[in-house]
Amino acid sequence: MERQVLQLISISLFIVVFSFSCEQKQEKEKVLPLETVLVDTVKVKSSKGVFYVNGKRFSGTIYWNYPNGLDTLRVRRYYDGLKEGTWSRYYPNKMLEEVRTYKEGKKEGTQVGYFPDGRTRFITHFKNDLYEGNAQAWSVAGRLIRNQNYHEGQETGVQQVWYDNGKVKANYVIKDGRRFGLLGTKNCINVSDETF
């Protein structure tokens, strides 16, 4: 009998805690309704990293159209005035130009840019608004022009940058906080442009 009473108390306590957490979630959603609005129909302001619509911290999706009024230029998401979720930008031909992600106002995750024909223009990774991992970029001709590595926003390991024509601009390694290799400049003059 005592065991059944303990089980009944445990189940009752679980139900109370569960229903309380559900009420808190619903209350939070009531306080911050998510909207979808066209920027031309509202008054917007950004101040100190906080985005406002009609004077209130914005939660939802806001989008911009090209001047033709038909094609979407960009789509941004906010939660309580801070950048949140996926941000997209489009070319006039409805092709994706770039996708960026945010969490609590900071860049987070993979950011990708595209050329108008759909080829990748850049790929970078962020963690807590700092570069993290490999960052690459390509020229219009499809040539790799940037291959750099980061940890907590600081360069680490192999760092390679090329001009659009394929000539090396910089090629060095960061090891134990020190640079080794071709930095690409000498007395503020590009090494490859010097006459020997």
Briefly characterize the structure.
The chain has 1 helix and 20 strands.
Structure overview:
The protein has 196 residues and is of the alpha+beta class. It has one helix at residues 2-31, and strands at 35-38, 44-47, 50-53, 56-57, 60-65, 72-79, 82-83, 85-90, 96-103, 106-107, 109-114, 120-127, 130-131, 133-138, 144-151, 154-162, 168-175, 178-182, 185-186, 189-190. The strands form 3 sheets. It has a 15-stranded mixed beta sheet that branches. It has a 3-stranded antiparallel beta sheet with strand order 2-3-4, with no helix packed on it. Strands 19-20 form a two-stranded antiparallel sheet.
| Overall mean confidence score, pLDDT | 85
Low-pLDDT sequence parts: 22-30, 192-196
The count of DSSP E runs of length 2 or more, i.e. the number of strands, is 20
Number of helices: 1
Secondary-structure element pattern, one letter each: HEEEEEEEEEEEEEEEEEEEE
Distance between the termini: 96 Å
- Helix-strand category: alpha+beta
What is the general shape? flat
Largest sheet: 15 strands, mixed
Helix content: 10-25%
What would you report as the Rg, rounded to the nearest angstrom? Answer: 25 Å
Report the sheet-strand fraction.
over 45%
InterPro entries: MORN_2
Pfam family, one: MORN_2
Organism: Flammeovirga aprica JL-4
Protein name: Toxin-antitoxin system YwqK family antitoxin
Task: Write the SSE topology.
Elements: H1 2-31, E1 35-38, E2 44-47, E3 50-53, E4 56-57, E5 60-65, E6 72-79, E7 82-83, E8 85-90, E9 96-103, E10 106-107, E11 109-114, E12 120-127, E13 130-131, E14 133-138, E15 144-151, E16 154-162, E17 168-175, E18 178-182, E19 185-186, E20 189-190
Parallel strand pairs: 1-5
Antiparallel strand pairs: 2-3, 3-4, 5-6, 6-7, 6-8, 8-9, 9-10, 9-11, 11-12, 12-13, 12-14, 14-15, 15-16, 16-17, 17-18, 19-20
